[in-house]
Amino acid sequence: MLILRGAYNPAKKTFYTDVYLSTNDNISKADLKIQRHAFTWDFGKKTSVTVNVSVKPVIPCTTKPGTYWIGVILDEKDYNTANNDTDGWDAAKITVLKPAATAPSGLECKEGNTSHHIPTRYAPARSQQLYDASILGGLKTGLIKSVSFRRNGTSPSTYIAHKFYMTVHMAAYKVKGAAGWTRTSFKANYAGTDYKLVAFKRLVSFPAVPKPSAPPAPFSVTVPFTSPFGYVKGRNLLVQFDTSNYSGGNGNYNWYADAQYYSSTSKSGTVVKYGKGCPSGLTLSGYAPPINGTSKLYWYWYSKGGYHTPAMAILGVSKTKWGFLTLPFPLAGMGAPGCFLNTDMVLAFVGFTDPSGNNGRYRVDLPVPYDPLLAGGVVYGQTLVFDKNYNTLGVRASEGLKFTLGTYMKPKPALHLYSYYFGGAPPFPDKPYYYTFSVDVLQLGGM
Q1: pLDDT tens digits for range 64-98
Q2: Which of 12, 154, 198, 349 is most buried, judged by most C-beta within 10 A?
Q3: For 179-233, what is each residue's pLDDT tens digit?
């Protein structure tokens, strides 16, 4: 609040007041300007006006903890300089504290690289966010007493004020790390943990905060806990939000929270054809995936053996020996001239060629365990199609394929599972409707 008095009778005009942060109580333009306000007023002679500042000044996040003063400078000529700089009343003394820690750590003063619309925009909704301990290095052992959101600091869109009821659960003890998370069940990620209700149907206000001039935005939305949550340093963290609309029904308000996305890279492997096939020169192709828990190893062969013909895919670990046999092993003596066994047999997959067409295509898709020890591993594949009209043995045999598996993709240390009314009416099923490898940037009160 500012109280300004006019010593003379100027015409109506716009006045500017700048707010400064200083290390002493002598406010000057050499101090750090943190805010500017403008107001229009028509002073009468020796009349005064009280200006209520609607937007609180924001102390820069990088400010070191300590004692400071906040003061203002009015962009107007002062006709009474005798009362200037009377220390003690022209500046307000404040104490700047160290900001509470964030999850993920290290983002107290840094903007996240993405944004979330759940749980801050839509309701009813459920949002489960998982933080691996590897991104919580800044957290200490202590009590988490609240969580706070901040708006995305780079979005140019206008944010809409609204209210949600919000219920919050947290868990940390025995919460699995990133490699053990599931994307298909809320409950599976907290079963057997210290999953705890920390806030029940808190009425939370989301203000129409403007885009900050220098991101990140301040944490402006806080959910205080009824029951603090005890966190032990080094544990993974699960936070689950359930929201409902204050005015009932479905709520959809433009309000995106700051969030952090994590990527992880890996490279596919290589596939090399070797040996001889019968017939030779037909299309034989495959894929050696990275070790990422989802991509499969596959290959297919156009055998020309007709449709819906019995076939077998062989997977092995050697192209030179199979027991007492030396590979490649010729099948001519068994009634299949020009045909060879090009790999040993560790696994075999029996099926039929495509049910339509005459190319005799047979394809096999094999899941690859999510194990870093498999990165760069080598396996071999071959396809046999059983065609009694082709030769005496009744077999067509492809060339061999050498698969060198790709690199290992480390688990992403963040996971967001969520559902909202767009994906089905609540109560929501245990299976989430969406997932992303990102989490809200949350300020953890008390930490």
Answers
A1: 888 888 888 776 666 666 655 545 456 888 888 88
A2: 198
A3: 899 999 999 999 999 999 999 999 999 999 999 888 999 999 999 999 999 999 9
Of 96, 127, 161, the position where a domain reaches its end is: 96
Q: Give the position of tokens 């209520």.
A: 52
First to last CA, the chain: 32
- CA diameter of the chain: 118
Calpha distance 103→146 (Å, rounded): 12
- Two tokens, residue 232: 């032990």
Phi–psi pair at 320, nearest 5 degrees: -120, -30
Please tell me whether residues 53 and 76 are part of one structural domain.
Answer: yes
SS3 3: strand
Average pLDDT of the segment spanning 259-281 = 94
**Which three-class secondary structure state does DSSP give residue 229?**
strand
- The span from the CA of 109 to the CA of 378, in Å, is 47
**10 cis-preceded (ω within 30 degrees of 0):** no
Whichever domain contains 71, its CATH number is 2.60.40
* pTM of the predicted model as reported, rounded to 2 decimal places: 0.71
Note whether 274 and 342 are within 8 A (CB): yes
**Domain match, 230 and 309 both:** no
Q: Say whether both 211 and 244 belong to one domain.
A: yes
| H or E element in which residue 190 lies | helix 187-190
CA gap 388, 305 in Å, rounded:
10
Spatial separation of the C-alpha atoms in residues 391 and 387, rounded to whole Å: 8
Three-state DSSP state, 29: coil
With 90 as the cut, is the pLDDT of residue 110 above it?
Answer: yes
Separation CA 190–CA 58 (nearest Å)? 37
Average pLDDT of the residues of the chain: 90
Instruction: Say whether both 92 and 122 belong to one domain.
Output: no
* pLDDT tens-digit readout, 25-66: 888 888 888 888 777 777 666 666 676 766 777 788 788 888
- Dihedral of alpha carbons 210, 211, 214, 220, sign: positive
d(Cα 68, Cα 240) in Å, to the nearest integer?
A: 38
146 CB contacts (<8 Å, ≥6 apart)?
222, 223, 224, 225, 444, 445, 446
117 and 260 together in one domain: yes
* Tally of structural domains, the chain: 3
Q: Are residues 291 and 357 in the same domain?
A: yes
